Amino acid sequence: MPVYVVGHKIPDSDSICGAIALAYLKNQIGEASVPARLGELSPETAFILEKFGFEAPEYKTSYAGEEVYIVDHSELTQAPDDIDQATIVGIVDHHKLGDLTTSTPLECWIRPVGCSNTIIKMMYDFHNVEIPANIAGIMMCAILSDTVIFKSPTCTTADIKCVEALAEIAGIADFKELGMEMFRVKSAVDGTPARDLVMRDFKDFNMNGNLIGIGQLEVIDLSVFDEIKADLEADIAALKEEGKRHSVMLLLTDIMKEGSELLVVSDDVSVVERAYGKAPVDGRVWLDGVLSRKKQVVPPLQDALA
């Protein structure tokens, strides 16, 4: 039986591209593996896969009785619903250590870098496996996405060096322009239902027993939300009630201004001021310099709820 390599629910480009890249590596070293996904592709990820000639990984939600290699998280809330009935054989991640546990030893590659695909590049180097041009291309794009073309505070020298090396393998002369093209795809929101936008990059976190949902939309100009912001606010309020969440937050991130407007509905809205030092007005607050959910949003919020 093969190992299924899968990322988190509501997968982003790092989850999808990482599953493909890691499954290929594992097959090259004699460990039969199949990339999989827990949700639909985002427009950005679909753009990346089409550009480099890949089909979407297998859509699979049940893993009971299977061996699983987890990519881009280590959280129960983001894992398959029946992960407790599967055998986790490995984790590749660049986030905080979550609450997944195992009954058997496993392989772990966890590094404080900007993207899981940076770690997967290190794994290719460790195993001395050549990276095909098309896989190098999707890995490079995932790193550019997660690091916001190196603008994110999560970006490290390792991420930059990996992008440069992968771009050379993939034959991409101007990787920053390709990164901007990806973000232009992300910025096309016209005609997309509010729920689809809210859930495009959405994660649930268990913070001291409180279920907190945090979504993020990264665009090159926040004016694209002017006509639909009220719809987004109504939808995060509905999402909070549907999931019995303590809070739902949506980051509207302007990658050019390098900051985010935070939309929030909460059982205790004062938690925002405790976390970020600024109180929301009518459920909105501008957070200057905030680009990263995992480094700038989740840790202070978790501290505020402790």
Automatic annotation (TrEMBL):
Q: Which SMART domains does the record match to this protein? A: DHHA2 (SM01131)
Record bears the keyword Flavoprotein: no
Q: What is its EC number?
A: 3.6.1.1
Cofactor dependence is on: Mn(2+)
InterPro entries on file? DDH_dom, DHH_sf, DHHA2, DHHA2_dom_sf
Q: Which reaction(s) does its UniProt entry say it catalyses?
A: diphosphate + H2O = 2 phosphate + H(+)
Q: What class of enzyme is it?
A: hydrolase
Which keywords does the record carry? Hydrolase, Manganese, Metal-binding
Q: Check the record and name the Pfam families matching this protein.
A: DHH, DHHA2
Q: Does the keyword Hydrolase apply?
A: yes
This chain's protein is named: inorganic diphosphatase
Question: Which organism's genome codes for this protein?
Answer: Motilimonas cestriensis
